[in-house]
Design the sequence.
């Protein structure tokens, strides 16, 4: 069966849309990207609105598949683990994994987007129309309408098809839902975020450990910081949106300064402009998008955050979207009509995106509370030891998600649930690592966890 041919329109020229354009161009499709923002190659992006991106194995695999990894490798900063900062200013590194290559990478959203757009637009048959805002979509007539923001002129674009990579607030998704073509909902987390800055020291020196994701867990809230290549860190404060301690309650510069100084005494001196940034930067909102069926026949389909936006606490938002692109491209290569492509893509991805959405929510609790809990640290230590002893059967859930693109999210969630129960049982009556019953552990692992993967798949960038 021949794959679909002709032309496609992609709404959204962010990282997902640009990567998708590159993959589809290799299928000899003509691709036009539409985006309401200016060309990212010539604009600085929106200050204060982005959470730093973390690139992990799934995203790396997608970039390799598209032949793009070498071009962005110089932008990546390795993060070997979580550097956990306690209220008493003590701190310690918790490595993400224990094998070479088991790390994630910090990357500038703006620089990555610009690089992907540049790579896409260098290809014959790919064009982009920036500052073109989608204003409506009529799935009966199969026409989308866009406004050229520079001239005010409206243009009509046939859905040939229309692929919506227009993010968590996707207008395409909302129009599909309003037309009764899909069911969709957006579950707000009731926590938001503010982006702050830890500037570089003299001569661009890093003022904290460079190769780590820094976390200040405080129970109901937390601060994180990711390194940038200029010696600075992008810090993000996560806090309830309303309540006794919330973004709503931090309503004067004095209250903000007192909160930051009290909650994060070790890092507050490193953020000289944090109070002004707190006032100036908008509060970002967090939530999960759930959609039932991601397409309107063969006319239009959702992909990436437009279909399944998740909260950022597992570092998988971009990685999941990039994995979407690879899966979608595979469906195009196998199937002969757009409707069959859309149906197969949805069937393959929906169970996995639901699984990572749940795991991302669970990881927020882990990051803001459990990383400082001695019981959690014992279970984590045991998980690494079990991985060393039974590497073909026991892989910590975090590692399955972050370092093994060949393990579907759903499989990671299901195996992770079994492993979590086992860790709790083995640690239930243990005071130290020496109290663990490894004979029982081996018996239970062999009974409950089938052999899984070749660990040699993990790689360095």
Sequence:
């Amino acid at each position: 069966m021949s794959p679909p041919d002709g032309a496609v329109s992609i709404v959204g020229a962010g990282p997902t849309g640009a990567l998708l354009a590159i993959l589809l161009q290799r299928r000899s499709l003509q691709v036009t990207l539409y985006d309401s923002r200016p060309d990212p190659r010539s604009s600085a992006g929106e200050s204060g609105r982005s959470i730093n991106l973390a690139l992990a194995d799934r995203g790396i695999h997608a970039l390799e598949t598209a032949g793009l990894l070498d071009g962005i490798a110089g932008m990546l900063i390795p993060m070997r683990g979580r550097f956990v900062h306690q209220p008493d200013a003590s701190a310690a590194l918790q490595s993400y994994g224990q094998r070479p290559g088991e790390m994630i990478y910090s990357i500038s959203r703006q620089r990555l987007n610009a690089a992907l757009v540049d790579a896409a637009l260098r290809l014959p048959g790919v064009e982009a129309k920036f500052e073109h805002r989608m204003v409506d979509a009529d799935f009966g007539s199969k026409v989308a309408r866009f406004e050229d923001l520079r001239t005010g002129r409206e243009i009509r674009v046939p859905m040939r098809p229309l692929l919506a990579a227009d993010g968590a607030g996707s207008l395409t998704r909302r129009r599909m839902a309003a037309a009764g073509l899909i069911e969709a909902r957006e579950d707000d987390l009731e926590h938001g975020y503010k982006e702050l800055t830890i500037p570089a020291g003299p001569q661009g020196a890093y003022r904290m450990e460079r190769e780590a994701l820094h976390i200040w867990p405080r129970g109901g809230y937390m601060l994180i910081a990711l390194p940038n290549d200029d010696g600075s860190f992008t810090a993000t404060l996560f806090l309830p949106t309303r309540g006794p301690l919330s973004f709503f309650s931090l309503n004067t510069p004095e209250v903000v300064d007192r909160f930051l100084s009290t909650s994060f005494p070790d890092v507050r001196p490193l953020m000289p402009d944090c109070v002004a940034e707190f006032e100036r930067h908008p509060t970002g909102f967090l939530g999960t998008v759930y959609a039932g069926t991601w397409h309107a026949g063969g006319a239009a389909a959702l992909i990436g955050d437009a279909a399944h936006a998740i909260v950022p606490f597992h570092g998988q938002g971009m990685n999941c979207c990039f994995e979407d692109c690879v899966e979608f491209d595979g469906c195009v290569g196998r199937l002969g009509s757009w409707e069959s492509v859309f149906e197969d893509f949805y069937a393959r991805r929906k169970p996995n995106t639901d699984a990572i959405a749940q795991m991302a929510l669970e990881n927020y609790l882990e990051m803001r509370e459990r990383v400082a809990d001695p019981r959690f640290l014992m279970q984590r230590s045991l998980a690494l030891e079990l991985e060393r002893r039974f590497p073909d059967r026991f892989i910590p859930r975090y590692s399955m998600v972050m370092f093994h693109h060949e393990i579907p999210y759903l499989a990671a969630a299901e195996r992770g649930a079994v492993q979590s129960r086992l860790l709790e049982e083995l640690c239930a009556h243990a005071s130290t690592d020496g109290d663990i019953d490894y004979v029982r552990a081996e018996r239970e692992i062999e009974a409950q966890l089938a052999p899984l993967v070749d660990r040699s798949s993990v790689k360095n960038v």
Remarks:
- Residues 373-453 form one domain.
